[in-house]
Amino acid sequence: MKKIFIISLFAALICNAVYAKNSPARYHLLMDRNWKFFLGDDKAASGIGFNDNSWRLLDLPHDWSIEGEFKKDEPTGGGGGYLPTGIGWYRKQFSLPSSIKGKQVSIQFDGVYMNSEVWINGHYLGKRPNGYISFVYDLTPFLVKGKNIIAVKVDNSAQPNSRWYSGSGIYRHVWLNITNPVHIAQWGTYITTPEVSAASATVSVKTKIENSGGDINNATLTSTVVDENGKEVATGDIPVSLAAKASGELAQQITVTSPALWSVDEPHLYTLHSVIRSGKKILDEYQSTFGIRSLEYSSVDGFKLNGKRIKMNGVCLHHDGGCVGAAVPLKIWVERLKLLKAMGCNAIRTSHNPVAPEVLDLYDKMGFLVMDEAFDVWESKKVVNDYHLYFDEWWQRDVTDQLHRDRNHPSVVLWSAGNEIPDQTNDKGVELMKSLLAVYHAEDPTRPVTTANDDIAADNGSTKLEFMNAEDIVGYNYVDRWHERRELFYGIDHYDHPNWKMIGTEDDAVRNAAEYSLGMDINKVRANYLGGMIRAEQLWKFVAVHDYVIGDFMWTGIDYLGEARWPGKGSSSGEIDMTNRPKDGYYFYQSQWTTKPVLHLLPSWNWPGREGLIIPVLAYTNCDTVELFVNGKSYGVKVQEFPRQGNSGGWNKYAKPYVNITTADLHLSWDVAYQPGTLKAVGRKNGKEVIIEEIHTAGKPAALRLTTDNSRVSADGNDVALVYVDVVDDQGNVVPDATNQLNFDVKGNGKLIGVDNGNQRDDASFKLNTRKAFNGHAYAVMQADRKPGHITLTVSADGLKSASVSIATQTSEQTTMAFEDIR
Q1: Are the beta carbons of 500 and 468 closer than 8 angstroms?
Q2: Torsion of CA 525, 527, 532, 535, to 10 degrees
């Protein structure tokens, strides 16, 4: 049942990005196949007669940086993960069928990093510096009968330009949009739900219509709301009249009775089917997904969704997919988000840029609250070649395009205009903030705006205060660094500014406590490793018991590339590593954010040569009590304390806080003299045994074990299968210190597109077919081709029993329509 769900969800997500049934009135066609690529610069490559026969043939999305080698002296430095960048060119030849004569044709790029320039048949269309924003060019005036050539130059050569791994190239999807002269504009519907109750909801629709032809009169726009079962639940008509070469916006109010509300637990979605008719002729059809829900923010009660208070249990996420770089197949995000959902995470911050449209679709479908962020910098730089060079000229257009693209997503509940903006500390920054807010409020008055403010800027006195007063919601990065009395967290500012609405935009997550060194003294273990873990626990406790805190976004949910120091290539700050393996801290949040029984022991129980050494054994749990056994001997029962729910009441700035940093930790601990064997923990609730966790001392590596996320994938050239590799002993226990060299061999209808092991200090290329195990694990990503059949992966290592897994590649009943499909 689980595998069937994954397949159907993935297929539905792909189809939802386009129109399941393309009509002659409109096509939204995938333009990813058969591009020519050249790494280097050739100024003649924009010309229609240029010979690109020697160029590499590939499909998009494509990230050329991830194909390179990690080198300490790369200009990207640690910010870019020590991977190469440069200049690259893409070209695609296509011929339009005669059936589209008289149509409007545009090309849509979902993301190109960075400084992209585009030509059609030698005609220059424009430049877009921002590497994360989606953009569209009109091709209509320049198209010819027969062969047409799109050329794209991508210039990511000025380095460093990012504090994290950006990737290089056309790393998101490309689409061809074909419409009649009278059509709904790009991202042309704006859907809000201003009145929501269990009995009924008002759906407010604004539709922008463009007319590139002659006068149009006596046409009609019909807007129909369709539920998840395909049933029409409400509709409304409005006349359309537009002069030649004009555009206009139409407003409608539609009532839906007994609406199914969108929430994090039940993310119900509706579709608005917009049809423009002139008599019996359909001029355009357009579909927009939305959700019916209400948002409320308060300086007292925090955040309410559909009238119910909810805490944002959030994580920050960067956009890369680990070993596949920035060109991330959707399946990888499906699996990652399922893990985060199981952790109890209900909120995502898009750090620090707009994400791919299909990822927002996932957030809608899976029930995540999203802080949709725009920039890492404004006018003041963080690295020498970053977006500050383009901000003044481009920020308003970039923000407007982001808002128009994303504002129908019910998951988006909050906009972030920037992250740790240096301009916060000067008068110009205050004016910039007000200018940004004016655009946000004009384009979408339904959601508040914040920025992620850092503690350094907090020392800037009145200027910083004016900046924070201007925000709809005050965002805090690393709130425990803001005041001398760090244990008060948000308390001092709440006392001084009781009308501020507050949210933790970025805070330290619980780190992997199992990484402490085997030889360390127990007191050093507590001081150096467990202390930071406890700090994060206390922050969560404060957030849990104070309703006025909207929530917190932990840094980070998943490890990512970049922001590293050699020999590291990425950050290990996540609760999940880049191979989708949960770390110990993952289970802390699961124990606090979910209600199902959770019991997790750490560290591992393989400490050869350390017999008799005192080891702190920790447990994360939401059980009332846990009893620990070592080889059958009880080490006692520990009682777990939980945060008190509900508001703390009036806050006295000088009173001792409810949360004391030195007491009431949210984990259990036993000091145990190490002896090989079995750790066993028994969790009880209300005196009843509800969960048992065991850790066994593993023997020597004996074999390999493969597991996969699915037994079948779509034969569409894009879908992937994820395969997890464990090095196990002869009893099937994972060997936690295994580092065997693994060899990956793929045969059949697909290819290997990345291997990894989660070790951020392993500088081997992701594109090799070999990898060392790390902590007994490794990971492979296989991508299907377009022929039904099977992909078979065999993993081997010297001295170990090899293992194989076979994945079926099947033609999907519902697929994205590609440009090639209309021939």
Answers
A1: yes
A2: 130
| Alpha carbons 36 and 45: distance in angstroms, whole number | 11
Angle at alpha carbon of residue 675, lines to 674 and 679, rounded to 5°: 85
Judged by average pLDDT, the poorest of 121-130, 373-382, 652-661 is 652-661
Does residue 276 contact residue 282 with C-beta atoms inside 8 Å? yes
Distance CA 291, CA 410 (A): 5
Strand spans (E) along 99-181: 104-109, 116-120, 123-128, 135-138, 147-156, 174-179
Amino acid at 771: R
| 152-208 tens-digit pLDDT | 999 999 999 999 999 999 999 999 999 999 999 999 999 999 999 999 999 999 999
Q: Which of 157, 167, 61 is nearest to 110 (CA)?
A: 61
CA pair distance 758, 773, nearest whole angstrom? 9
Distance of alpha carbon 347 from alpha carbon 329, whole angstroms: 21
| Residue listed under structure tokens 């407010």 | 204
C-alpha closest to that of 759 among 564, 506, 509, 534:
564
Handedness of CA 707, 264, 61, 273 (dihedral sign): positive
From residue 114, give the alpha-carbon distance in Å to each of 123, 264, 564. Answer: 20, 34, 21
Alpha helix (H) residue ranges in 640-692: none
Q: Which residues of 40-59 are buried (b: 16+ CB within 10 A; e: fewer)?
A: eeeeebbebebebeebeebb
483 is written with which tokens? 């005041």
Burial of 635 (0-12, 13-18, 19+ CB in 10 A): middle
| Distance of alpha carbon 710 from alpha carbon 720, whole angstroms | 9
User: E strand or H helix at 443, and its extent?
Assistant: helix 427-443
Q: Any idea which residues carry the catalytic annotation? A: 420, 484
> Cβ neighbours of residue 28 under 8 Å, at least 6 residues apart?
18, 19, 22, 175, 176, 177, 817
CA torsion through residues 703, 709, 715, 717, sign: negative
pLDDT, tens digit, 9 for 90 and up, residues 1-54: 444 444 444 444 433 343 334 457 999 999 999 999 999 999 999 999 999 999
CB 383 within 8 A of CB 161: yes
Residue 4's H or E segment, with its range, is helix 2-16
Among candidate residues 269, 277, 157, the one with its CA nearest the CA of residue 216: 277
